[in-house]
Every structure is written in structure tokens, then in C-alpha cells.
Amino acid sequence: MSNIVLIGIMGCGKSTVGKALAKALQYQFIDADDYLVDKYQMSIPDMFAISEDYFRDRESACLDDFVSKDHSVIAMGGGVIKRAENHPKLKKIGKVIYLDRPIEDIVNDVDTSGRPLLKDGAEKLYALDKERRALYEAAADVQLINDGSVEDMVAKIKDHWED
Ligand SMILES: Nc1ncnc2c1ncn2[C@@H]1O[C@H](COP(=O)(O)OP(=O)(O)O)[C@@H](O)[C@H]1O
Ligand SMILES: O=C(O)C1=C[C@@H](OP(=O)(O)O)[C@@H](O)[C@H](O)C1
Ligand SMILES: [Mg+2]
């Protein structure tokens, strides 16, 4: 298995840590949200404006595109775990790491623009964490706490990966 798959709630750092980790490992970096925007030539808010299901169908379909990747770090969108049928697909793509960052930290610095589910404010993350925590745990191979710097997190994941 040669890919690292990052999951976790919005703002936990999948995109930021993923990019830095890929650089450190000299792997390709793929952000699933950017991949979708590119593939369908439509922004995430525009997909959600049609419906959340419209976005989820495309998000789920793109997992099949990632199975053939190699030496890649893939940052998923935070809701990819909502569909149970995605869990085995994530594990097939690579080692699934749940970035578990304290919600208080995220609420303090998350950029809500471009995140339709946070249109009424970042506090929504507390409810989403309650709804989804068990799903992240079920979908992950490893759960790592992200309560330091981005560099600390990169080092922690590298340690696990190289073990
Ligand atoms: N330890 C950390 N790990 C990751 N991101 C952090 C950390 N500390 C602060 N941040 C900030 O939190 C935000 C994480 O956002 P992002 O990477 O887009 O998350 P995600 O892709 O999981 O939704 C960024 O603005 C980043 O600069
Ligand atoms: O948690 C979610 O349901 C979502 C997370 C977002 O990605 P990030 O986790 O990178 O913000 C993006 O896929 C979309 O806005 C929906
Ligand atoms: Mg992201």
C-alpha cells in the first residue's frame, strides 16, 4: 500500500498537513475537493446549491479514480465518511489517517467561506463532530491528535508511515 489518505472534520488540517506531508515524503498531493472542482468544472458551493446529494455522488465516484494512485497523499473532503460504502474504498486506496484536531482550535481559525455546511457559522462544527466522530473512527486505520503545529503533525504521520 503506497498512499496516505487523510480524513477528519472540516478545518482539522487535511489539506494543509497533506500538502506539507507530500512535500516531505516527495509524494504527489491530491486534494479531493480540488480534484472534483477540476473534474466537473464547478465550485463546491455550486454543487451544494444543486443538492448535498449531488456533491456526495461526485465525491463518492472520485474514490474510484484514486484507487490506481501510487505514492500519493490524498486529502479527502470532511464528509466522505457519511456514506458507509465509502469506508472500504478509502481503505483500498491507502492507509487511512483520522486527523483529530480539537474543535475549539478549529472554530478559532477555520475559513467558513467556500464551506457551505458552515454558512451559519463555525459553531456548527460541534454538532457535526457529534454526528460524525464515530464514523471517522470506524473509517480510519489510525487516529492521530493534531494539537500542535503543522510541522509536528507531519512528523507524527511520517513516524507512523515509516514504521
Ligand atoms: N496543527 C495544524 N494542522 C493543520 N492546520 C492547522 C494547524 N494549526 C492551524 N492550522 C490552520 O487550520 C486550517 C486548516 O484548514 P484545512 O487544511 O483547509 O483543513 P481541512 O482540509 O481539514 O478542512 C488552516 O488555515 C491552517 O493554517
Ligand atoms: O465536511 C464536509 O461535509 C465537507 C467538507 C469540505 O472539505 P474540507 O473538510 O476540506 O473542508 C468539502 O468537501 C465540503 O464543503 C463538505
Ligand atoms: Mg480540505
From TrEMBL:
It is an enzyme of class 2 (transferase). Pathway: Metabolic intermediate biosynthesis; chorismate biosynthesis; chorismate from D-erythrose 4-phosphate and phosphoenolpyruvate: step 5/7. It holds the Pfam family SKI. The keyword Cell membrane does not apply. One of its GO terms (cellular component) is cytosol. Keywords: Amino-acid biosynthesis, Aromatic amino acid biosynthesis, ATP-binding, Cytoplasm, Kinase, Magnesium, Metal-binding, Nucleotide-binding, Transferase. One of its GO terms (biological process) is aromatic amino acid family biosynthetic process. It catalyses: shikimate + ATP = 3-phosphoshikimate + ADP + H(+). It is found in: Cytoplasm. Its EC number is 2.7.1.71. GO terms for molecular function: ATP binding; magnesium ion binding; shikimate kinase activity. Substrate binds at D33, R56, G78, R132. Belongs to the shikimate kinase family. PANTHER family: SHIKIMATE KINASE (PTHR21087), SHIKIMATE KINASE 1, CHLOROPLASTIC (PTHR21087:SF16). Monomer. Catalyzes the specific phosphorylation of the 3-hydroxyl group of shikimic acid using ATP as a cosubstrate. This is Shikimate kinase. It comes from Intestinibaculum porci.
